[in-house]
Specification:
By secondary structure, the chain is α/β, with parallel strands linked by helices. Helix content is about 35%, strand content about 15%. The protein is globular and about 60 Å long.
């Protein structure tokens, strides 16, 4: 029996869900294209689109999809034989490189694989090695729609500046604009490209290219652009028809106008927060499923490098394809294929799928997708861990903030007291100015954070949901830490580490891992296999994991 009858849900990364208001805006007769309402409406599109991209600079619009935006950027930025440096983190980076090579541009591809973000250090090294300054522009995807890797655009700009290289920076925001935060001018991008069918919630058919004054001046010498692709008259037309080099895409423009109205009503900060919450909801569910089946995992391990508009998930060969077919046929939910994720062992990428949460998507839609996916796993006999829906609901119930336990690493010396503690992850509290990577909290760059972290007696404040270690002191005992710990602004009580550790030491048992529950903050205790004294002699007792 199929339960798919009803309104279907297309949970693929473009075309995204079309809001009813956007669809209704298109239900109208063709307008006068020579004067009147259409002209007045179009005049308001350009300022709003600049706000969405975070720029005050030029904008050209094309009738086309994301590939058209690639073509427009390529032929305006380069002349035949010019060199581009393409930073690839997935299928769409390679696609942009192929499009550039097809029109005569020489492309050097710096490939970072399909599961990690661009390494700005490697980019800087390549740019420094380009002593002849042959690289005309660096091309990078903000979020690759296939791998779902998100790149740090500002870090790439910093690499260009550190190398003292004059190359332009062009960014593909097709999968991220209107979903992930993006600030073209602040982050130093010279060119940004996007399309209408994803975060902008408009049917496929409009392509956008924002470009800086520097890029406009450089483009004047390009010998690849034709009158149709030339962005100059489109950005500053003398006549209305020049916006599109011909007849305006009238009904797409009405749709876009309504979509931008909706974006303005919600506000970009709220939109970015919503996408952050929905992404974390999906991640929480996949992590829980993966706890019961090692074949199930998120493609991108580092949360900072994951796009907030779409998530790539591995289930194992055949299982992803089986699940996609089941969810569509039995429940009316269409999931994205594992585009560009094929391998020698899985050439058809049947072990991969993508869950989109971009554009006009809310909590019940995302929770519904996850519930249907779990139903499919049950029906198909795909092994999976329990608690996925509870984990997802927990993110939503917490206002989009994922409740996490506090990872505690206790270092105990031969006299059995906590010697030191430190942060393990380089992104921990970065926004608060904490410099990490070295033992201790002496490297904190923020007075308030330093004060909070060092006052372990009364409580420890963590301002980011990463690993934080407890600093204790006192001879012959394990200093207990009791107080409020904030992770993702969720207060978690860390209770009586002293009693948990000391009671096991007195009993001659291995010192326990102290793991906060993440729901109520209660500490659980799990013994280690090795002897306590052996560990204490090395100065390391154990580490707790957080999730």
């Amino acid at each position: 029996m199929s339960l798919a009858n009803g309104r279907p849900y297309l949970a693929i990364p473009g075309p995204s869900v079309m809001p009813d208001r956007v669809l209704a805006a298109m239900q109208r007769p063709s307008p006068n294209i020579y004067e009147g309402e259409l002209h007045a409406m179009v005049a308001g599109l350009w300022p709003d689109l600049r706000v969405v991209a975070g720029t005050v600079h030029h904008l050209a619009m094309y009738i086309g999809n994301g590939h058209a935006a690639w073509e427009a950027a390529n032929v305006n930025l380069f002349s035949r034989g010019d060199k581009a440096l393409l930073l690839s983190t997935g299928n769409f980076g390679i696609g942009w490189a192929n499009a550039a090579q097809a029109v005569g541009i020489k492309v050097e591809v710096l490939d970072f694989g399909r599961s990690v973000a661009v390494d700005a250090g490697r980019v800087e090294a390549v740019l420094r090695a380009d002593t002849g300054r042959r690289i005309r522009a660096v091309l990078v995807t903000h979020v690759d729609t296939a791998s779902t890797v998100r790149n740090d655009v500002a870090a790439v700009r910093a690499a260009l500046d550190a190398a003292g290289h004059p190359a332009l920076l062009a960014v593909d925001c097709i999968a991220s604009l209107g979903c992930d935060a993006y600030r073209m001018d602040e982050w130093g991008a010279d060119v940004t490209i996007a399309a209408s069918q994803k975060g902008l919630m408009t049917p496929p058919g409009l392509a956008f290219v924002w470009f800086s004054e520097k890029a406009r001046l450089v483009s004047a010498g390009s010998d690849l652009r034709t009158p149709y692709w030339d962005w100059t008259p489109r950005a500053a037309p003398d006549e209305f028809w020049q916006y599109w080099h011909g007849t305006a895409p009238t009904h797409h423009l009405f749709a876009l106008r309504e979509a931008l109205n909706m974006i303005g009503e919600e506000g970009l900060p709220a939109i970015h927060a919503r996408h952050e919450a929905l992404a974390r909801t999906v991640w929480a569910a996949v992590d829980a499923w993966g706890a019961g089946n090692p074949a199930i995992r998120l493609n991108v391990a580092d949360p900072a490098a994951r796009g907030r508009s779409v998530t790539s998930v591995r289930l194992g060969a055949e299982d992803a394809t089986r699940l996609r077919r089941w969810t569509e046929a039995k429940a009316g939910v269409t999931l994205g294929v594992g585009l560009g994720m094929g391998s020698a062992e899985d050439p058809g990428a049947d072990g991969w799928l993508r869950v989109a949460h971009m554009g006009h998507v809310n909590a019940h839609m995302t929770l519904g997708v996850l519930a249907v996916m779990q139903a499919g796993m049950v029906a198909l006999g795909i092994p999976h861990g329990t608690g996925a829906l509870d984990a997802a609901v927990g993110v939503i119930a917490g206002g989009g903030r994922r409740k996490r336990g506090l990872t505690v690493r206790l270092q105990i010396n031969a006299d059995n007291f906590v010697k030191r503690a430190f942060c393990h992850e380089p992104q921990c509290c970065r926004a608060q100015g904490v410099k990490t990577g070295r033992p201790g909290f002496d490297d904190c760059g923020n007075d308030r954070v330093r004060r909070d972290i060092n006052q372990v007696h009364g409580g420890l404040s963590c301002h980011a949901p990463q690993r934080v270690d407890l600093f204790g002191h006192g001879r012959g005992q394990t200093r207990h830490v009791e107080g409020a710990v904030r992770a993702d602004q969720t207060e978690i009580k860390v209770r009586r580490v002293k009693e948990k550790a000391d009671s096991r030491l007195r009993a001659g048992k291995p010192v326990a891992q102290a793991v906060t529950d993440g729901q109520d903050g209660a500490l659980s205790v799990q013994g280690f296999a090795q002897d306590t004294r052996e560990k204490a002699g090395r100065g390391l007792v154990g580490q707790a994991g957080a999730d």
